[in-house]
Amino acid sequence: MPSQLLPPGIEVFERGWFSSNNIFNFGEADVSIVDTGYCAHQNLTVDLVKLSIKNHHLLGLNKVVNTHLHSDHCGGNAALIEEFHCDVFIPNGEDKAVKNWDMDLLSYKNLGQDCPQFMYQGLLIPGQEILLGRYQWEILASPGHDQHSIVLYQNEYQLLISADALWEKGIGVIFPEPRGEICFEEASNTLDLIEGRQIKLVIPGHGKPFSDVGSAISTARSRLDYFAANPKRNARHTAKVLLKYKLLDWRTQELDKVSQWISCTPVFFALARRLDMQLPEFIDWLPKVLVESGVAKLENNHLINVF
């Protein structure tokens, strides 16, 4: 099993697609967690950390590290700060947005998601190292899925915390930036960076840890090339992922309220334009295409999640 390749002092809380994985690191000098899941699961995040602290006879949690600030990776920050009074480290470049809690710079308003406000104490600067538990990790810039995202590399054990830059069967959605550009080239460069490292085990943002890095990179490149060849494919995929994610939160929702949420979520305006649709047409189309994909169903004028 790939997880057996984890050295002492590292545990992975595999969370699924609604909340990102949490990587718990513990040693004599530091107890920290990388990424904290979505706010709807924040109580579970706290409970998982408290259980590991108890099991390993630790004094508490002193540090939260966020690979990027999408809501499924930092939605548990505020709850952990309240429980443990820990410090938070965020990617360099996000300091102004967090300090001012600027909803235009942060992704939550644009993507129609929630994240309780938190403050940070430190920045993750590419090229520098950070202590997580017992080990030093190199901070590497990994733009593409998010322009400020970082990944973390542990040289001694050849471990990579890849966030959403690389999964076993793909990569995270390449969202359009506020000015409309789509960062396919940046995502490809990040795969080049990962490919250039000696890696025995990848701990992804979603899904189980894996060791077949070459196959994962090949799959990620194939998907990236598919979307880059026709940006409309990426727009359709992005729209479906965003509604599916919201439906994971709702579980079931009246179709009128689904339509209202779509109409109030700014990213969908750009996606509709890229698909050459007027917004009313797009609002009608999106729930239907989710049903056609088999990941939702319509019953009694409700959109219902299908797992």
TrEMBL record:
Domain Metallo-beta-lactamase: 28-206
InterPro entries named among the record's database cross-references: Metallo-B-lactamas (IPR001279), NDM-1-like (IPR050855), RibonucZ/Hydroxyglut_hydro (IPR036866)
PANTHER family, per the entry: METALLO-BETA-LACTAMASE DOMAIN-CONTAINING, METALLO-BETA-LACTAMASE SUPERFAMILY PROTEIN
Protein name in the entry: MBL fold metallo-hydrolase
Species: Polynucleobacter asymbioticus
